[in-house]
Structures are given as structure tokens and as C-alpha cells.
Write a structure and sequence with these properties.
Blueprint (H helix, E strand, L loop, with lengths): L9 H17 L22 H34 L18 H30 L8 E8 L2 E6 L4 E4 L1 E5 L9 E7 L4 E4 L7 E3 L5 E5 L5 E7 L11 E7 L1 H12 L9 H9 L2 H4 L23 E2 L4 E2 L2 H9 L1 H4 L12 H11 L4
Parallel strand pairs: 1-5, 4-10
Antiparallel strand pairs: 1-2, 2-3, 5-8, 6-7, 6-9, 9-10, 11-12
Helix pairs in contact: 1-2, 2-3, 5-9
The structure holds dinuclear copper ion.
């Protein structure tokens, strides 16, 4: 069953407005990094349509659970205090009462009704999120999970990148959600950017789908959320949401072929004469490996090693010299390059902007 994209329900907004202050103060140690709101990896600060739907349903569930807790704990506290042992009680049993149709009926029917409300509200949120149909100008992206990095393809745009998913923001005048096809090259991973959507697993030999629709430009931090081996915790993910014009600029830059630079010919030769090219691709060259990230626009990325270190010249050199030192178990080996070769290769890689 499919239906059109829809915004969060009025019921949801009422709940959000009523319970945000309550839940935030009462239950949740929400990190408040006010200056960089988009770096908060919390489901309680949603900035995307599916995340908003999940947020609203979680507030409803939390509110109902809190009410149940208050009723049960209140009755328990009342009973403990009201019927506590008093002087002169010694040895006397309290009155023994067996069976009460009214009470038994109440504690059967009320929970059934509560569960029924939760089922209906949850089913509606799932239907809203999973049944959404992509609009004509939606961005289509294929995300492939690897141990331990993210391969990212834009089939319509002819772009391949890694660990950073660039999307346009959705504006109320023009909605541009991004629909993701999720696959895995090895084991099960899970795509999770808490501010943008719920988790969805990437399963070998299976295709899962999800969508995001950021409403504010910025960098959203995510992580693999399914244990996938030694470096699972260092399989970070960034979603960079651009204003529409900035997104077009990014697309145009990524579609450019690499620029030949005679100055770095030595590094080029080292790169293309070693097994680098068995694992990495650089567009329009004979490097077409598929095991590691595409390097065509390597230097346009913020990090190396799927978020492990910032992408600076110094870090790039350290990474190429010995990836195992930085990310033990990563599938990229130490290539045993000499210092000169290292300098040359890094100079070449720096031209891949
Ligand atoms: Cu990939 Cu955990």
C-alpha cells in the first residue's frame, strides 16, 4: 500500500508541543550543544520528516509509560505507607481478601485499551514513513555497507563517494527528500543518523529502503548501528544537507573528472604501479578497484577511515603509511612504501579534489 508523502499529524504536533519540555527535563540527558544543533546525535531533536514521525510516536509511548509508572508507583507508595507495621500489630494477620471481579476486569481491560492505542498510533507512523512515494525530483542514492565504511552511489547523477552522503534540504515550497537503497557487501550493518530517520539494516543479498528529508542545512552525524566486526564503532557516517544551490554546486564538482597534474607524476606512477588500483577507483583512469572507497574526489571529504581522522595532509600521510596503526583490522594493508614514495603518493592524492 502506498500513499503520498505527508507531514506529521496534528495529533503528533500536539504531543510534541505538550511533552517536549516535560520529557526533556524529566527523562532524557539530551546533550545541549546549542551552537551546533546538527551535530547532536539524538532522536529527540529531529530535523527530518521521518525522524519527526518517530519522535512523535516515541513521545506518545513515553507519556503513556510515564502515566502508568506514576499510577503504579503512587499506589505502591500509598499501600506501603498506609498499611505499614504499627505498634500493637504484632502477630496479627491483615484481612485476607480473595477475588474481585471489578479489579480484575479493570486490570485486564485498561492495559488492552492502552496497547491498542499504541498499536494504532505506531502502525500509522510506520505507514506514513514506509509507504511514502518518492516525488519526481527526489534524490536516489544507493548506500553499500562495507567493513568498515560506507560506499555511496548516485546512479542518476553518476557520482560515487564514501562515508559522506550529500543531499539537498527540503523546503516547504519544494520538497526534495532523498530515497536510499541499502545494500551490504559483506556482513549486516545498520544505517542510523538519529536526527534524520530511524535505523535501517543493510543486509547481504537483500535490498532495504529508507528515506531522509533534512529541513536544515548542516552536517548530521551518524554511525553504523549493527555490530559488524572489530571496527564497528568506527564506521561513522556524515550526512551533509545543502541549500539547493549549494547541492547543485557539489554535484557539478563531483561530476568533474580528476585533473591531470604533471607536478605529481611521480606519485601517480607509484599509485598506478602498486596494488592500490586493485581496491580503489579513480574515474577515467585504469584504477577501477571496488573493495575500497572511490578516490576520484578524495580531498573533498571531511574525514579519512570513515570518520576516524580529519582529512588533512598530515593525517593522509599517516593513513597511507600504516592504516593498521590508525584503524586496526581495516582491510587496507600497510603498503610498505618508502618515505619518498609516501611523499609522492600523498602529493598525488592531494590533487584529487
Ligand atoms: Cu557496520 Cu557496524
Amino acid at each position: 500500500m502506498k500513499h503520498r508523502l505527508r507531514v506529521p499529524t496534528r495529533l503528533g504536533r500536539v504531543f510534541a508541543n505538550t511533552f517536549i519540555p516535560y520529557c526533556t527535563v524529566t527523562f532524557l540527558p539530551v546533550p545541549v550543544f546549542a551552537a551546533t544543533p546538527n551535530r547532536v546525535t539524538s532522536i529527540f531533536e529531529p530535523l527530518s520528516t521521518p525522524a519527526q514521525a518517530i519522535y512523535e510516536i516515541s513521545l506518545l509511548v513515553l507519556a503513556i509509560c510515564a502515566a502508568i509508572f506514576l499510577v503504579v508507583a503512587g499506589m505502591l507508595a500509598y499501600t506501603i505507607i498506609r498499611f505499614r507495621r504499627r505498634p500493637g500489630d504484632e502477630g496479627r494477620e491483615p484481612p485476607q481478601v480473595y477475588g474481585s471481579n471489578q479489579i480484575e476486569l479493570a486490570w485486564t481491560v485498561v492495559p488492552i485499551l492502552i496497547v491498542f492505542v499504541l498499536i494504532l498510533a505506531t502502525a500509522r507512523a510506520i505507514y506514513d514513513v514506509q509507504g511514502a512515494i518518492p516525488p519526481a525530483d527526489a534524490i536516489n542514492v544507493t548506500v553499500v555497507g562495507h567493513q568498515w565504511w560506507w560506499e555511496i552511489h548516485y546512479p542518476k547523477l553518476g557520482i560515487v563517494t564514501a562515508n559522506e552522503l550529500h543531499v539537498p534540504v527540503s523546503e516547504s515550497s519544494k520538497r526534495r527528500p532523498s530515497f536510499l537503497r541499502l545494500e551490504s557487501a559483506d556482513v549486516a550493518h545498520s544505517f542510523w543518523v538519529p536526527q534524520l530517520a530511524g535505523k535501517t539494516d543493510l543486509i547481504p543479498n537483500r535490498e532495504n529502503r529508507m528515506w531522509i528529508e533534512p529541513t536544515q542545512p548542516g552536517t548530521y552525524i551518524g554511525n553504523c548501528a549493527e555490530y559488524c566486526g572489530l571496527q564497528h564503532a568506527r564506521m561513522l557516517l556524515r550526512v551533509i544537507a545543502h541549500a539547493p544551490a549549494d547541492f547543485e554546486t557539489w554535484v557539478a564538482a563531483q561530476q568533474m573528472p580528476p585533473v591531470e597534474d604533471a607536478q605529481t607524476q611521480a606519485g601517480h606512477n607509484v599509485f598506478f604501479s602498486t596494488s592500490c588500483i586493485n581496491c580503489h577507483a579513480i574515474r577515467e583512469t585504469k584504477a577501477n578497484g571496488k573493495f575500497g572507497p572511490d578516490l576520484t574526489h578524495l580531498m573533498s571529504r571531511q574525514t579519512l577511515g570513515a570518520g576516524v581522522i580529519a582529512n588533512t595532509e598530515e593525517n593522509l600521510r599517516a593513513w597511507v603509511r600504516d592504516p593498521q596503526h590508525i584503524k586496526p583490522g581495516a582491510l587496507m594493508p600497510n603498503m610498505q612504501l618508502t618515505n619518498d614514495e609516501l611523499d609522492q603518493v600523498v602529493a598525488y592524492l592531494l590533487t584529487l579534489k
